[in-house]
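Each record in this resource describes a single protein on a pair of labelled lines. An example record follows, reproduced without changes.
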Amino acid sequence: MGETKFKRVLLKLSGEALMGKAAYGIDDEQLAAIAREVAAARKTGVQIGLVLGGGNIFRGVKGASQGMDRASADYMGMLATVLNALAMQHALEREGCPTRVMSALPMQAVAEPYLRQRAIHLLDQGYVVIFCAGTGSPFFTTDTAAALRAAETGAQIVMKATKVDGVYAEDPVTNPGAEFFANLTFGDVMAKNLRVMDLAAVSLCRDNSIPILVFNLLVPGNILRAVRGEAVGTLIKE
């Protein structure tokens, strides 16, 4: 495993992480920067599964709030994650990083169908595997998809990259003095109603003893620091 603390990790990126300073879509420079960091982390020997949100293109919950049928809105959100996955695959392969995209929705022309044993085999072979289309079912978030894929593939940790340094008692954007938590238990997250991930994702990680690390994606080198086990962000475990 060389420099890394972990054999296999599941990295969760929000769709908004791909926007950079843009208001919508994918910023090429931001995409390339993330790809460079993921490729550098892979070179340490860690196996990386990757889940991307789709909020930079379409968010199912928002569509439902505007009167759209929730299931249809969620399927549209799943398709947005496929677009992001294909863009990330291209960026990673430009960095010389072998990559496969696996979709929970069948679309063989652009992605392999998700098969657990196939995913594990690819991870063992050194591929970065991008899991897209969520869980394949509406009413579940990409956070839950990340926790599910982590449990299915035997990842040792879920790493959620965000725009803030970790977990705070309140939104640090609106309250700069909000308390920062370096360590939390799953019970703390639920009791304090901290918006780390949705409760289904937190419960899945708790039930399968998979820690969650929440850290700032916008700090260069943080993905590499995270897989090395350095103290970044907030660690949640029992």
Q: What stands out?
A: The first strand starts at residue 8 and ends at 13. The CA atoms of residues 102 and 118 lie 10 Å apart.
